[in-house]
Amino acid sequence: MAKVRIGWYGLVMAGGLGFGLIGERRPFGNDMLAHPLVVYFAVVALGLLILRIVVARPVPEVIPERVLVAGCLSGCSRVPGGKLHQLPHDGGPDATMIRRQEYRTRAGIFEPASKGQ
Known about the structure:
Blueprint: H1 2-23, H2 36-55, H3 59-62, H4 65-85, H5 95-107
Helix pairs in contact: 1-2, 1-4
């Protein structure tokens, strides 16, 4: 039983971190239901359904309810951790902003000068 709990915690936390790492790019689209956190919970629910079919027993008999809830919450807490991992660590500008500026410069799109200059 302890191996199942450790496996559950490990999988949901790794999944949350993974979805946090890809979340900024919005790979599933910009719709509300395509948000990486919503897709993460859909994947967790699908995994629990597969577990139910494989073991042919109710999931709470395999993984207790408290462990299920704690795993979901700990996995959800890893999503922002994945986003924090993407932040620049050297205090420099974000790479996405640099790419946007390069694109605008090449496309001839110039932003108006700020009023303070």
